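Posting this for the archive.
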Amino acid sequence: MVKMLTDGWREADRERVSSALHPDFRLVTLRESPSDVQIDTREHLLESVARLKRGNWDDRLREEEVRIDPTGIATVWAKCEFHSDGKRSRCGVVVP
């Protein structure tokens, strides 16, 4: 699902991104300042993807690690570099 999501961003494919996201999906981004938190809803993210052109967003993940808790819920930890329009705009750790 994570690959489907990042491929969908890269390809500007709203339907592919939509199929990768849970109906209650929220994207929480923490910046350098602890008070700088951005929360995006599923619908807002899908609206953003609909306005993209192929290659506008490229979230490059590496050193992925899947963690499964005792209830069976899985998370993926990965280092990432986010490229916007071919230029690196930020890097960090992603937990989709």
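The chain has a mean pLDDT of 86. The beta strands are 26-30, 37-41, 57-68, 74-84, 87-94.
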